[in-house]
């Protein structure tokens, strides 16, 4: 219990609760109204999927900046296929497959050609976003398929967004994957020391392929979900969420160094970010200032990460 | 211009090891003074003290009788001391002239560099030493030898009174060595104090005036080069007493079947290696640093690409392409560099011990925590790893305990290891833990494994191994039994072809 109280997650959880209380007070209880909670839950869905993809890669010591681009391109693929009368399920599978394929390319660039993931995915980000524009000549594509409408907007029991179920299931599955399976363990070991992991008999390249493909597929799913919520696939929606995904992962204690952090922290990170953004809207902070505040929040998170890591390093030196 | 460099009673201890003990000697201007000794004799530590990289516990470095107090390397540079290490210390993306004048580029009052003047002065220096270089060449594109020349010119340009070389010929071809020696002699002729560290006999006789022999951190002899010969020097270098440590070992006396046979193995780094290892046997690989021992281990372990040759394990020819395949065949490696290659420091003891057996501690698709804990508890108990819990991060353990975690990983009961390769298993480990690790290695042999031990400490490899393979330049230059092997003999083979 004491170790939990001293952990980064405990600090974050405390911060989350403080955030909820402060915004509730400032908005006169407005943030706690059911309609607003539904809003928060819906915003969580998209960010969660991106955070899982980006976060697992960060644990393995890599980064993926192409998730926004993949999401955009895949949502266009789904929307255009639906327009052609392709059944909803096939359209969804095709979109996810496209995302997975781009992930495979990212993995290839990093594993086989030795590019740094930052650079490789910066390039694919630009290519996928551009491809999205080309498919549609930059115009939004509306979605009329009833199943997509259901997935994106249906409230179960009148309160719970259907899409949030997808996010919750995904978070649980990936938390188990990371903590309980050989693959998850390999992600941490590869992120902690790639050379040692290889000499220990693991296959770092295989792990990275898996993670890049996974992140691509999840980004495609996120893009398609966003389109089904908005009932339109456009070129702007998912890109800002990509940075929200990275921010949430960092807030949740997944560091760029690799090897540390987990889904538990990431979930709190997602909640902090969503409550923070929603709260600012509810207390009428102007949108431009919200952007500034998001940046400040990220800086605060990195500072926290830096302080706790350097404290840990100091205690290592003493030992 | 300084005339005399003096080391006076230099002592330096690291945790568990006395690296230098009361070392005193002088080096004079216009002379080349050799520092000779085996790996670990204290040569590098002495150079690091000279260059201000580390501080001696006691004793002084004096220039013309004046005690120097270097706190950081830049103090030593300013004091007129340049050390030229094996690794080049230059900016690869800049030109020869920029590197020679680094830190003191000619510039005007606005800070704009006068390239015309820079080029002229650099070229004058190049001409002075008659070197085949152009001042505008990019350093990164030069050969190792040429880079070294640039570094020497930089030391000369700084007006250093003392120029020390750490194994300067380690990666040079013969023709390059000729040019290097001409350069070094020229420095001495101009009145510099030159220190020359090496363990290559031939070149020491070729260019030095005086030889200081270090052994186990102590100065054991000094000679005028003209008044000594090679056998005398070798004897001075290695003639040490072997402690009781090895006599007390409980060794494995039974030999089983051949577990590993390497036939004509060739990679980029080693050539035509053949070797046999039987169950219960400890084979030692001896040789100088860079002889290709680690590379041979990596090749047998599937970590480096094999170009030709065959690896036979328990009579079956195998072809694996990565460490994962080698582990599946029962070959395990404990790498030399524990922190960089052996362990994941940010994870727990438990997670490090099970790295190679994750597939075998699963229930359905999930890792079985109880099984994992049990496996690591056994290792902690068996090897007496000192830790409050197996959940402790490996990065927080001492060197000896970290080594035991790696041994625990390579030999836990789920591994079925038949061939165990240990690369420098006692490097950086205190004397007490060393003895423990020797016994653990003998116990591995007793349990039926074939063990390969790589060590740069001659007494260690000679006394722990049943058979010793000596390597030089990526080839095996001799095979000796423990009874036949003497330090002199092994050293001779290790220096073969140099």
Walkthrough of the structure:
The complex is a heterodimer of chains A (319) and B (498). Chain A is mostly helical and 319 residues long. Chain A has a domain at 33-239. Chain A is built from 14 helices and four strands. Chain A has helices at residues 2-6, 8-26, 34-59, 67-83, 88-111, 117-136, 146-153, 162-180, 182-192, 194-199, 204-230, 237-251, 263-282, 287-318, and strands at 141-142, 155-156, 160-161, 232-233. In chain A, the strands form two sheets. Chain A has a two-stranded antiparallel ribbon. A two-stranded antiparallel ribbon of chain A has the order 2-3. Chain A starts with a helix and ends with a helix. Chain B has 498 residues and is an alpha/beta fold. In chain B, 32% of the residues lie in helices and 25% in strands. In chain B, the strands form five sheets. Chain B has a six-stranded mixed β-sheet, with helices on both faces. A six-stranded mixed β-sheet of chain B has the order 16-19-20-13-21-22, with helices on both faces. In chain B, strands 2-1-4-5 form a four-stranded antiparallel β-sheet, with helices on one face. Chain B starts with a strand and ends with a helix. In chain B, 44% of the residues are buried. The mean pLDDT of chain B is 87. The chains are: A mainly alpha (319), B alpha/beta (498). Chain A binds chain B through residues 176, 180-182, 185-186, 188-189, 192-193, 195-203, 259-260, 316, 319, and chain B through 301, 303, 322-324, 327-328, 333, 335, 340-347, 351, 355-356, 358-359, 362, 365-367, 395-396, 409.
């Amino acid at each position: 219990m004491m170790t939990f109280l001293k952990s980064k997650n405990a600090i974050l959880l405390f911060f989350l609760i403080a955030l909820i209380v402060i915004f509730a007070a400032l908005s006169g209880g407005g943030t706690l109204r059911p309609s607003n909670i539904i809003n928060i839950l819906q915003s969580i869905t998209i960010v969660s999927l991106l955070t899982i993809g980006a976060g697992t890669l960060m644990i393995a010591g890599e980064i993926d900046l192409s998730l926004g681009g993949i999401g955009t391109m895949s949502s266009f693929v789904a929307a255009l296929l639906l327009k052609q009368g392709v059944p909803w399920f096939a359209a969804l599978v095709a979109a996810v497959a496209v995302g997975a394929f781009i992930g495979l390319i990212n993995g290839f660039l990093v594993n086989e050609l030795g590019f740094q993931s930052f650079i490789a995915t910066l390039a694919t980000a630009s290519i996928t976003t551009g491809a999205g524009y080309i498919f549609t000549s930059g115009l939004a594509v509306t979605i009329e398929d009833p199943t997509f409408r259901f997935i994106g907007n249906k409230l179960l029991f009148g309160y719970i967004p259907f899409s949030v179920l997808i996010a919750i299931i995904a978070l649980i599955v990936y938390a188990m994957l990371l903590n309980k399976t050989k693959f998850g363990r390999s992600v941490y070991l590869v992120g902690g020391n790639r050379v040692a992991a290889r000499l220990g008999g693991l296959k770092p390249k295989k792990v990275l392929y898996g993670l890049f493909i996974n992140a691509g597929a999840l980004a495609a799913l996120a893009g398609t979900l966003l389109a089904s919520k908005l009932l339109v696939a456009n070129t702007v929606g998912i890109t800002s969420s990509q940075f929200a995904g990275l921010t949430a992962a960092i807030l949740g204690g997944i560091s760029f160094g690799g090897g540390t952090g987990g889904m538990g922290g990431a979930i709190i990170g997602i909640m902090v970010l969503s409550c923070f953004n929603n709260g600012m809207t509810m207390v009428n902070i102007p949108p431009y200032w919200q952007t500034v505040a998001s940046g400040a929040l990220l800086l605060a998170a990195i500072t926290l990460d830096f302080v706790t890591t350097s404290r840990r390093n100091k205690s290592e030196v003493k030992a | 211009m300084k005339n005399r460099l003096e080391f006076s009673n230099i002592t330096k201890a690291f945790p568990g090891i006395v690296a230098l003990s009361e070392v005193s000697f002088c080096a004079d201007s216009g002379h080349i003074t050799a520092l000779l000794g085996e790996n670990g004799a204290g040569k590098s530590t002495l150079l690091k003290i000279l260059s201000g990289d580390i501080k001696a516990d006691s004793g002084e470095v004096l220039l013309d009788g004046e005690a120097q107090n270097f706190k950081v390397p830049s103090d030593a540079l300013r004091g007129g001391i340049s050390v030229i290490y094996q690794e080049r210390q230059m900016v690869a993306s800049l030109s020869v002239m920029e590197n020679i004048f680094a830190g003191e580029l000619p510039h005007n009052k606005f800070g704009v560099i006068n390239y015309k003047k820079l080029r002229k002065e650099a070229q004058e220096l190049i001409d002075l030493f008659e070197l085949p270089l152009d001042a505008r060449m990019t350093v990164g594109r030069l050969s190792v030898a040429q880079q070294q020349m640039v570094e020497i010119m930089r030391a000369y340009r700084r007006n250093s009174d003392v120029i020390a070389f750490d194994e300067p010929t380690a990666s040079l071809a013969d023709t390059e060595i000729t040019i290097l020696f001409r350069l070094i002699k020229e420095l001495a002729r101009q009145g510099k104090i030159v220190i020359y560290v090496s363990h290559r006999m031939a070149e020491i006789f070729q260019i030095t005036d005086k030889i200081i022999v270090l052994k186990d951190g102590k100065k054991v002899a000094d000679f005028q080069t003209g008044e000594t010969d090679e056998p005398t020097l070798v004897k001075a270098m290695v003639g040490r007493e072997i402690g009781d440590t090895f006599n007390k070992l409980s060794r494995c006396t039974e030999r089983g079947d051949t577990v590993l046979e390497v036939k004509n193995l060739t990679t980029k780094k080693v050539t035509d290696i053949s070797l046999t290892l039987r169950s219960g046997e400890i084979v030692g690989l001896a040789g100088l640093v860079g002889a290709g021992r680690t590379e041979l281990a990596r090749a047998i372990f599937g970590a480096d690409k094999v170009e030709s040759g065959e690896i036979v394990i328990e009579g079956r020819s195998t072809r694996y392409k990565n460490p994962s395949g080698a582990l599946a065949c029962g070959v395990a490696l404990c790498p030399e560099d524990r922190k960089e290659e052996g362990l994941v420091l940010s994870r727990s003891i438990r997670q490090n011990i099970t790295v190679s057996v994750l597939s075998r501690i699963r229930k359905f698709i999930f890792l079985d925590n109880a099984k994992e804990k049990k496996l690591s508890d056994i290792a902690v108990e068996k090897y007496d790893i000192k830790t409050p819990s197996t959940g402790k991060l490996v990065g927080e353990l001492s060197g000896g305990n970290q080594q035991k975690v790696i041994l625990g990983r390579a030999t836990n009961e789920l591994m079925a290891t038949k061939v165990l390769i240990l690369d420098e298993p006692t490097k950086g480990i205190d004397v007490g833990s060393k003895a423990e690790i020797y016994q653990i290695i003998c116990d591995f042999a007793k349990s039926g494994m074939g063990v390969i031990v790589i060590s740069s400490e001659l007494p260690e490899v000679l006394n722990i191994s049943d058979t010793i393979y000596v390597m030089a330049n990526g080839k095996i230059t001799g095979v000796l039994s423990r009874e036949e092997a003497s330090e002199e003999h092994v050293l001779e083979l290790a220096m073969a072809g140099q």
